[in-house]
Amino acid sequence: xxxxxxxxxxxxxxxxxxxxxxxxxxxxxxxxxxxxxxxxxxxxxxxxxxxxxxxxxxxxxxxxxxxxxxxxxxxxxxxxxxxxxxxxxxxxxxxxxxxxxxxxxxxxxxxxxxxxxxxxxxxxxxxxxxxxxxxxxxxxxxxxxxxxxxxxxxxxxxxxxxxxxxxxxxxxxxxxxxxxxxxxxxxxxxxxxxxxxxxxxxxxxxxxxxxxxxxxxxxxxxxxxxxxxxxxxxxxxxxxxxxxxxxxxxxxxxxxxxxxxxxxxxxxxxxxxxxxxxxxxxxxxxxxxxxxxxxxxxxxxxxxxxxxxxxxxxxxxxxxxxxxxxxxxxxxxxxxxxxxxxxxxxxxxxxxxxxxxxxxxxxxxxxxxxxxxxxxxxxxxxxxxxxxxxxxxxxxxxxxxxxxxxxxxxxxxxxxxxxxxxxxxxxxxxxxxxxxxxxxxxxxxxxxxxxxxxxxxxxxxxxxxxxxxxxxxxxxxxxxxxxxx
Length: 485
Prior knowledge:
Elements: H1 8-18, H2 22-32, H3 38-47, E1 54-60, E2 69-71, H4 83-95, E3 102-108, E4 111-112, E5 115-116, E6 119-123, H5 132-144, E7 149-150, E8 154-157, E9 192-200, E10 205-211, E11 218-219, E12 222-226, H6 233-237, E13 239-240, E14 246-249, E15 253-254, E16 260-265, H7 269-283, E17 287-288, E18 292-294, E19 305-308, H8 312-321, H9 325-340, H10 345-360, H11 382-394, H12 398-403, E20 428-435, E21 438-446, E22 452-460, H13 468-479
Parallel strand pairs: 5-7, 6-8, 7-17, 8-18, 11-14, 12-15
Antiparallel strand pairs: 1-2, 1-22, 3-6, 3-19, 4-5, 9-10, 9-16, 10-12, 13-14, 20-21, 21-22
């Protein structure tokens, strides 16, 4: 059973917490709460995960009582995408929830009779959400200036970030997975494409749409319809996606699938921006005399307009609800761009480290890599994440951070959790994390009594997925708190 709050050890733990002696408090409380509740102990036993590969910690959000449950709370572990909690909370405090990214646009030449006599220059400044719709809006604003033809080039300035070269296959050998898209000061549409299939039964085929239209990329406009169940429809297409100039499909599409979409990272990331901008500009009726190329804003040139991103409070919903890695990395790099004038991984690690020390001191300092959790090197303890959540709860950014987290059994990466367990559905706002050998969650559970609790659970083990039933049991147990003193 959980530790009784009347025990001498519990009183020592409580005195340390109330006195602000956090390191002593966590040490005492960790010792005090090693006996897990029967249902949690049973779930952990069924998982067959070694106890030293698991960290669990449940505490009240105010941090004024001993933890209700603790197992290995001080052990640094890889949290996978739970790292995004640290990045987004730091950004909310350092940048503010109303912060927005600006993407300035420059005209290097006069406009005469609908033609820009020179270059159009676009400078990226880290916007994480320069998606297809907003890129269309940017180009529409260019056309609103009376420009229908550009006699020169479209120049793309990426100089706000300084990044090492990245092979999208390096992390897990899956270069076409959208989550492997790399950060870029001018990140257009996550360097991804979406293929959409719409069945046309009368014609016996499925029509294929490619968004955005990529200049120089050919693709089959239709594929044959197949009979039978939808099943693994992507495999049935027999897609050939490795050639950056051609997307081919040797199979067919099951009619029973209805309309479906398939998001993909582009096979040649270095040429994506040029292809997307040229393709969309021409699709909108624009003409281009030169090419799309990388370059710098000419010295002294002032922007003709600037496209603003959605505010940070909205952007972090996409980052946390759907665990968007490249958006998190964009935000991470923005921290050093704003403070140092150049976005670099080392600079952002320094900014985050300084922020952590100011807020929490040297204790439990996380070891971060790229801010997204798509890393084998990041480490943080359950008690560090608990301290972060408790500080966020007490601070002015709590509503924005909490509303950005998936709601258990309802949306985001938690929509399937606890489908058959009413005690779990809607009971918790939690950030999830998952990598090979890593499963993790951290966030806030809403107790039946009206109290709120921080919950952290992590497993680092080849069988880490076995922690998921433990997490479900832990949420249900934490929410059932009516009889607590």
